[in-house]
Amino acid sequence: MRASVCVSCTVVTNCSLKRAHSNQAYYEVPGVQLTDRHLDSTGELFDIQGLALDNRCLGVDVLLKLTQKVKLWQFPVEAICNSESGLERVYQGSCILVILPFSLSPSESLRLGLNWLTLRKE
What we know:
Blueprint: E1 5-15, E2 25-28, E3 43-55, E4 60-83, E5 86-104, E6 114-120
Antiparallel strand pairs: 1-5, 2-3, 3-4, 4-5, 4-6
């Protein structure tokens, strides 16, 4: 008899929205109070099925909808630039890692639905 296999499926997405550390651009997670909602924040979330990246300045929401609860990491993508004041970090975008650990027995299958939607706010 064959044993189960334990693996993780990880999907990486980078989104570039302006104004990373502004009250006009932020993360929202249904049912979760985030300690730092800014797009340049770092965090780990557990058992979530959705995420929104809102940008009021651009009038855009970027939504992630999932069919299963997952673990999610978010962190800024930054460039290091040399300026007159020395080296500084420059925000380039936000990285979202969707992580689904699971175990499968032989001939068993698993399906994960992951949808990104962009909504224009008027």
